[in-house]
Design a protein that fits this description.
Blueprint: E1 2-6, E2 15-20, E3 26-32, H1 38-46, H2 51-58, H3 70-81
Antiparallel strand pairs: 1-2, 2-3
């Protein structure tokens, strides 16, 4: 299992920490900072799911007029980790 840490840009969360196992599944997704309801829910929903599929689903999801979101930043973090 590989552990990753990503510093998101233009969002409320300050760090995204996650693991990807040898089969490409996401584990232990943790957003540091950000929305205390939505982000833990995202973490629960993506647990054990295919990392590339999750990135495809979340990529491009905006938050207001920021042009990105914590979910979009997770997709970017996954893309960076499992290129």
């Amino acid at each position: 299992m590989q552990n990753y840490s990503y510093e998101p840009q233009r969002v409320c969360s300050k760090q995204i920490i996650f693991s990807v196992d040898d089969e490409g599944k996401l584990h232990d997704v943790n957003f540091v900072g950000g929305c205390p309801g939505n982000l833990p829910a995202i973490s629960k929903l993506v647990e054990g799911k295919d990392a590339k599929e999750i990135a495809d689903i979340l990529r491009g999801n905006p938050c207001g007029n920021r042009g990105t979101s914590c979910a979009d930043q997770l997709a970017i973090a996954i893309d960076t980790a499992v290129h």
